[in-house]
Amino acid sequence: MQIMKSKPFAIATAMLLILSMLGAAIVLPNVNGAQFPGTTIPVWAYLEAVPERVGLGQTALMVMWIDKPPPTANGIFGDRWVNMTIKITDPDGAVTTLGPFMSDDAGGYSATYTPTKLGTYSAVMYFPGETLTGSQGNPGYPNLNNANVGDVYGSATSNTVTFTVTDEPYTLYPENPLPEEYWNHPIQAFNHFWSQYAGNWLGISPVEFANTGNYNFAGNFNPYTKAPLTGHIVWADQLVPGAAGGQMGGEFGGNAESNYYSGFQYQPKFAPIIMNGILYYQAQPNYNSLTQGFVARDLRTGQMLWTKNYNNYFANGSQDVLLCGQIYVYKTMNTYGGQTYLWATRANGSSTNLDCFDAATGNFLFTVWGGGGGGSFGRQNFQGTDGSLLQLYVNSSRVGGVTRQSLSLWNSSKCVNPGNSQFFNFQQNGNYPYETGVMWSVMLPNATSDGKTIPSWVFDDAGHSAWDPDSSTMILGAGTGMYAAYGWNPGWLMKVAVNMNNGEILWLRNMTQVPFAASMMIPGASNGTYAEYTKETFEFTGYSTATGDKVWGPTVAFTNPLAYYDQTSAIAAYGKLYSWSFGGEVVCIDMTTGAKIWNFSTGDTGANTPYGTNPFWIIGNYEATVADGMIYLETGHDYGPPLFSGAKIYALNATTGELVWDILNFASGSSLPVAYGYMMSFNAYDNRIYCYGKGLTATTIEVSSVFNSPTQVQISGTVTDQSPGQTCLGIPAAGTPAIADPYMSRWMEYLYMQSPKPTNATGVPVTLSYIDSNNNYYTIGSTTTDFNGHYSYNFTPNIEGPYTIIATFEGSNSYFSSTAQTPITFMNPATTAPTATTGTQSMVEQYFLPMSLAIIVLIIIVGVVLSLLLVRRRP
Question: Strand pairing of 294-298 and 278-282?
Fold first, then answer.
C-alpha cells in the first residue's frame, strides 16, 4: 500500500506494491483446495474502443474486462486477472501491443491509446488464463483460505473492435470552471476540477499531546484548497456551550495573568478534523478533565450538527480520544466510492484500542483491539492511496538474548477485512485484533559496519524522524544517550532510511554533528532533501533522502537569540523550507540550494511582551500552515500566562514574505487548519474558535426623485455582510456594513473582540448599470459605500420609458459578490436645449426696430387717454 502523497493537482495512479511480513511474502498452500479441481473454467473476454471516432492526436480509451470477477478478490486482497494485453493494428498494418495489464478486483481495466495516423484501426484483447493462488498480481495482500484458490481459469480472446481516426476531433462534455462564487457541500460528482479546492484536513498527525489536529506527519501543508486573503471572520463560538474564557474579573484583578485556562501544550483544547465541509473536534472544556465526547459542526456556518459522548459507553469506563478522520475507498464488484469515518483511541489496560465511528452520525461501529495509541511519541499515522489508515511504529523485543528493535507498518484495511474471507461490502461491525493488520516488520540495525553498538532508534515527529512523501522514505535517528531526548550528541548521530512501502533498509549513515549541540530533524522533506536544525547555532543543513549525503548548508536562519528555543518549527512546501522562531522571525530557504529567499520579523514590541518581540509558537510544527501560496503563523508562548497584549495571527505571502494581513489571536497549542477556503483558529484570549474566510453579502437598491430636479433620480442602497457569526455587540454579523479589505482585520476585532471601532474604514465599490426600454445595457458609473454600508448616486435618464436599474458588488478577498435591481419608469426625460446663436445686427435692426416699438407704445398710451376723456363727458 503506497502512502498518500501531498502533490498539488495530481496524484499518480497507484500501482499495487509488493508488501510482505518480515521480508518476502510466502504463499501458503490452500487449506481448502480448489473448488473445481481438474476443471478449466471458461471465461469470456471483452473489449470496447471509446469513442468509435477519434480525432488525430486525441486519446482513445480501451476498456477491457473478463466476464467473471476474480473470485478471491476482496477489497485490497486476493487475486487479480493478470497479463491481459491488447494488440492494435493501424491503417498501414503495423501492430502495437499494449500491456500487460492487471485487472481491478472487479475484473476490468481501462488503457489509453493515442493514434498517429488517419484511417481505421482494429484492436483485440487477449487473456492467457490463470491459476488462482490467492495473490496473483497482488502478493502483498493474499486471500489464501478462499475456496477458489487452486481453480484454473482458461484463456480468452475478445472480438475484434474497430475505431476510426479523422481530422475532426471529438468533443467532450465541458468541465465546469473552478468556483469563484460561494459554494457548499456536496460538490457535484461531475465537477472534477473542483478537487483542487476540496482538500480535506484529516488530522492524520497530532497536535502535540493530542492525538490529531495536524494535516499529516510532514506538517500543515494543504495543497488542495483556497485560503483566506484577509482577516474576515465568518463565525466565532465557544468550543462547547458555557465554556469560560478571557478575563476572570472581579476579585482576581485585571492583568495578563488573570485569565481562564486555555489548554496550551499539555491539554490542547482544539485538535480539529475537517471532512466534507464538516468540522470535528474533541470537547474538552476544562483542565485535565474527562473529555466530553465529539462535536460535529458545519464549517461554513458553525451550526452544531451532533455531539456524542461515549464516556460511559464501554465496560471499563474508559473514554475515546479522537485520532483522525478517514475517507476510505473500498472497491469490490459490488461497491465503489468513498466513505467517511472517525477513528479514536481508548485505553484498555496495558494496550490501546482503536474505535471507529460513522462520521455522518457519530455512531460507534467497531473496535480494533490490542494495538498502540497515537500522538507525537506513539504510533505515527499515515494515509494510504485508498484512504486506508496506516500506522508506523517501533517495537522492542528479545531476539537471541539481545534486545532488538523492529519497524512495522499496520493497515486498517488488512485488519478489518481479513484476507481469508470474501466481503463484497466493507465490514463495519465486530472486534478485530490489531496484529492481523500488520503489513510488514523489519529489524532495525543495532550495530555499525565496524561493530559499534547503535543506541536505540527514536521514531517521532518531534525532531528524530523525517518523511519524504515523494519517495515514501522514512528516516529515523538514533538516541545519543546524552541529556534527554532532544539533547546533545557526541559529534555524530546514526540515521537509517527505510522504504515505507516494503520495509527495505535503504541506507545507514553515521552523520557528523556539532559536538554537545542538539540537532533536530524537520519532519517533512521536499525536492529529495530533508533538513536538520542545530539549536545552538541557529543553522539548517540539508541532506539527501536518497543517500543521506549532505546537500547544502549550514545556512544561518535567525539572528534573535530566542531562536535557541526552536525545535521542529518548520514546514516543507513548494520546494521551500519555511521556519519560524521564538524570536519572532520567519525564514524561507530553498530546499535544493539552501539559499535564504526571504525573512520576516514581527518587530520590536518594547515592554509589551516579556521578550521584546512577538514570539511565534515553536513547540512542534503545528502552529503554522501553508496553503494557496500563503503561510499562516501564530504568536504566543507555551505553558500559560502571561497572555500579553498584541499576539496575532500573521498571514504572509509564501513567495515573497510580504505581510498580507494580521489579526489579534493568542496561540494555544492548536493548529490552523485550512480547508475549502476557510481557516480555523483557537484564540486563548477568549477560548473561542474562529472561522476565517469569505462572507456572503447582500446588496439592496432603491430609486427616488431628486428634490427640485425633475430630470434626475437618486439611486441608493446598501451592501452588507451576511455571515452567520454573532458579534460581541449583541447583534448578528448579518446586516453589518461590508468593509474594504485593507481595514478588515481592525473591523473584525471591533465586531468580535471588543476592540475600538476603527474610524478610517471605508466601504466597498458598487457598480451601477441599467437596461433601458430598448433593452440596451449601459454602465452608469461606480460609487463606494460609506462607513455604514450605504451608497447613493444621481442619475439622469436620457429617454422615456421603463428602466431596470442594477447595483452590483463584484466581491473582494473578504466577500462573495451580490447584486440587486429595481424597475422604474421615467416620463419626463431631459432634453438637450439648442444652443442660441448670436449674430451681428444691421443698422436698421439697431435703430428702426427700437424706434418702431416706441411709436407703437406711444399710440397705445394716447388711445387709452382719449378713452378716459370720452367717458368723463357722459352725463
Answer: antiparallel
DSSP code at position 193? G
Whose cell is 522533506? That residue is 525
As a whole number of Å, the CA-based R_g of the chain is 37
Q: Between residues 844 and 462, which one has the greater pLDDT?
A: 462
Cβ contacts of 866 within 8 Å, gap of 6 or more: none
In angstroms, the CA 709 to CA 434 distance is 84
CA distances from 582 to 267, 555, 638, 697, 749 (A): 21, 18, 11, 39, 25
Which segments of 491-549 are extended strands (E)? 492-499, 505-512, 519-521, 529-534, 539-544
Structural domains of the chain in order of their starting residue, each with its CATH number: 40-166 (2.60.40.1930), 697-826 (2.60.40.10)
- Pairing mode of beta strands 431-433, 364-371: parallel
Q: What pLDDT was estimated at residue 486?
A: 54
Evaluate the omega torsion of the peptide bond into residue 206 and state whether it is cis, within 30 degrees of 0.
no
Specify the pLDDT at position 640: 58
**pLDDT by residue (tens digit) across 816-868?**
999 999 999 888 654 443 333 333 343 334 433 344 444 444 444 434 433 44
Cell 522571525 belongs to residue: 585
- Pick the closest to residue 495 from 445, 440, 442, 567 (CA basis): 445
Contact by Cβ (8 Å): 1, 411: yes
pLDDT tens-place string over residues 680-702: 999 999 999 999 999 999 999 99
Q: Provide the b/e sequence for 783-802 (b: ≥16 CB within 10 Å).
A: bebebebebebebebeeeee
Confidence grade of residue 707 (pLDDT, cut at 50, 70, 90): confident
pLDDT at 261: 80
Contact by Cβ (8 Å): 679, 623: no
| Dihedral angle computed from the Cα positions of residues 293, 219, 194 and 107, in that order, rounded to the nearest 10 degrees | -90
Q: Are strands 53-55 and 161-166 parallel, antiparallel or unpaired?
A: parallel
| CB-based contacts of 18-24 (< 8 A; 24+ apart in sequence) | 18/139, 18/140, 18/502, 19/140, 19/141, 19/409, 19/439, 19/440, 19/501, 19/502, 20/139, 20/140, 20/440, 20/502, 20/503, 21/438, 21/439, 21/440, 21/441, 22/440, 22/441, 22/442, 23/440, 23/442
DSSP string, 395-443: EEEEETTEEEEEEEEEEHHHHHS-TTS--SS----SEEEGGGGEEEEEE
Given a contact cutoff of 8 angstroms between Cβ atoms, the answer to whether 201 and 221 are in contact is no
Q: Which helix (H) or strand (E) holds 538?
A: none
Distances (CA, A) of 565 to 48, 265, 615: 63, 15, 11
Q: Say how far apart CA 162 and CA 657 lie, in whole Å.
A: 57
Mean pLDDT confidence for 416-425? 59
Helix boundaries (H) for 427-582: none
Which triple of cell numbers denotes residue 679? 481557516
Percent of the chain with pLDDT over 70: 86
String of b and e for 411-449 (b: at least 16 CB within 10 Å)? Answer: bbbbbbbbbeebbeebeeeeebebebbbbbbbebebeee
SS3 for 140-172 is: CCCCCCCCCCCCEECCEECCCEEEEEECCCCCC
Which class for 465: exposed (0-12), middle (13-18), buried (19 or more C-beta within 10 A)?
buried
Report the first-to-last Cα separation within the chain, whole angstroms.
Answer: 136
Transcribe 203-267 into DSSP letters: --EEPTTSS-EESBTTBSB--SS---SS--EEEEEESSTT---SB--GGG-SSTT-B----TTTS
Q: Supply the pTM of this predicted model.
A: 0.87
For residue 594, what are the β-bridge partners? none
Average pLDDT, the chain: 85
- Nearest alpha carbon to residue 648 among 128, 258, 231: 231
**Res 868: pLDDT:** 40
Q: Cell for 13?
A: 495512479
